[in-house]
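Sample entry (528 residues):
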Amino acid sequence: MSDEQKRILEEKLWAIANILRGKMTADDYKDYILGFIFYKYLSEKIELFINSQLLSADDFNFADIDESIEDYEELLNDLQKDTIEELGYFLKPNELFSYIAKKGNNESKEESNFILDDLEAILKNIESSTMGTDSQDDYENLFEDLDLSSSKLGKNEKQKNELISKVLAKLDEIDFKLHDTNSDILGDAYEYLIAKFASGAGKTAGEFYTPQEVSTLLAKIVTSKRKSISTIYDPTCGSGSLLLRVAKALPKDQHPKFYGQELTRTTYNLARMNMILHGVHYRDFDIKNEDTLEYPQHKEMQFEAIVASPPFSAHWSARELFLSDDRFSHYSKLAPKTKADFAFVQHMIHHLKDNGTMSVVLPHGVLFRGAAEGHIRKYMIEDRNYIDAVIGLPANIFFGTSIPTCILVLKKCRENPNDILFIDASGEENYEKVKTQNKLRDKDIKNIIDTYKNRKEIEKYSYKAPLEEIKENDYNLNIPRYVDTFEEEEIIDIDEVSSELKALEKDMKSTDKSIKSFCDELNIATPF
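Predicted structure, serialized as tokens:
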């Protein structure tokens, strides 16, 4: 797919989203449009699978099947069994997206075009078709955020039906080209919409989306020195985009398994949709809906790659009970109740394999704050030697907050155990300003990854600090202590400046004299 075709598709999808945009907030219309796109994907996916794999020898397609066909129920049962085994869900022919979209826009007086009840039943049927199967957890309550009875869609049922029918009709016109296995048109389009919604969601954006360039950076860090990765974990996975970004950084022949946990129910649903829509088989991802710190769901598991962008300085219970939790017990102190940043880091380290790499985005405060956080930081460096690199990012790079952030890279078995690499990528030359947001360019990401991978020391950009120097600084990791970005100001020649001022004063007196002469000739008062 060319860049121009991609741009046109994105514009079409955003135009469809704007049909709903005028009716409700970004948080609301996001759920509707992404949910409808996902329903369309499931419909086209099941048609493609059944037509090419199960009905290839027959002279009819799945969409042609109706009750007039001999042995209709038996045929559907057979198709359902094989389809659920492969795809994890099932839709009947009259439940397909295109069927409902056409019905909703049928202007014939002989047949009703009211589809809200049908649509609600279909979305529930998709979920119920997985009951008792291996895919049940991945589809359960997946469409619960699509409230088709909401007054936000219209004042009455007729208005609601017209609005939804219009959206479905516009979506039905778009070909997502699922038959092209070499492209991920729909996946890219979904990511585009999620990013667009995040840019307009203000402070809530961070709950479900990490900016693409930050995700790319985190992904490249954990894959930079690995030929293969079989397991990827994100304990605060949001929409799942960061997990998918890691997979994108791997060779195409690799198919890792994804693990994640997300607290917000709506975002958890979005993450599951995102996985399925990107072609991740239901057996290859395990995403849970629960509080990661309070109720971890992957207790006995460890992972080769861990990435995360946890909520900055979130609150948590910090209950004394956690001092006996394997994730925190070695440190003898817990992260503060009002700043859970290090609690997330400790949780991630606990789940990291000995040969694994983790990269996590955090607020700058974790580098220098004292008390319990200083104690935890010292233990990670002095006792465990986990911290491999510290990377400073520009301020105002995240949606909804302008605070400067950093990336911590940690490993249990480091190839370079005698120093910590510091990279200061926060300078103006290391990003571009796009409207009100700062953005890492491809070349900026490349510079960071190249510097990290080869552990380069570059003046005013990066430095390898020996552990002894870290110790002398009392385990304070504030980047300016190690990367000197000070620019010496040009020396000013006072005598030269004095001469210039004298010459300027002489010129001004000459000019004043000329002006007075002109004023005398015109017989008017001088302005001085």
